[in-house]
Write a structure and sequence with these properties.
mainly alpha
């Protein structure tokens, strides 16, 4: 069976701010990324992802995410801003615990610090799970369809989280 294609294709993974993210990821590939965050190891990266996934999986956070995105009334720019605003709440709590600055600066630092670890299969899988959790349009596809379309076969991941808009409709 082929890929499930939603009626409306979700936005690309990069979304708004692509250039900034790309620059951060390119910088992370350089040796100074490891030098800048020497205490940020693979185990810390995986631990941080687990904490973020747990927070993004929280039913109350999911409810807030879906409400903000719904309030954007289909305007992709407003949806992106809504996702960013709600996601920043979690990132603002979590990133400083792992040695990153608060706010957008911390997001950019964490992107740079993750650069050397992104090719690690477990990191890549958890990155994909987080993308699923922070985007209601991708949640509408269902976890299996989303993960499969991103190269992760069924059974290679698991996730428990609260209701989504699909569950309520």
């Amino acid at each position: 069976m082929g890929k499930l294609i939603p009626e409306e294709s979700p936005p690309p993974l990069e979304g708004p701010g692509t250039l900034k993210k790309q620059k951060a990821l390119e910088a992370a590939q350089e040796p100074q990324a490891l030098e800048q965050f020497p205490s940020f190891t693979l185990s810390k990266a995986l631990e941080m992802q687990d904490v973020l996934i747990a927070r993004y999986s929280d039913p109350e956070w999911q409810e807030a995410l879906h409400a903000k995105v719904k309030a954007a009334e289909g305007n992709r720019g407003k949806e992106s801003k809504a996702r960013s605003d709600v996601t920043m709440i979690v990132q603002g709590e979590v990133l400083p615990k792992f040695g990153f600055a608060e706010g957008q600066k911390g997001v950019m630092e964490s992107l740079a610090a993750f650069g050397p670890f992104n090719p690690v299969p477990e990191v890549a899988k958890k990155n994909c799970l987080m993308q699923f959790l922070i985007n209601p349009a991708w949640q509408a596809q269902g976890l299996e369809a989303f993960m499969t379309s991103n190269g992760f076969p069924p059974g290679s991941y698991s996730l428990s989280f609260g209701t989504t808009r699909n569950d309520e409709e």
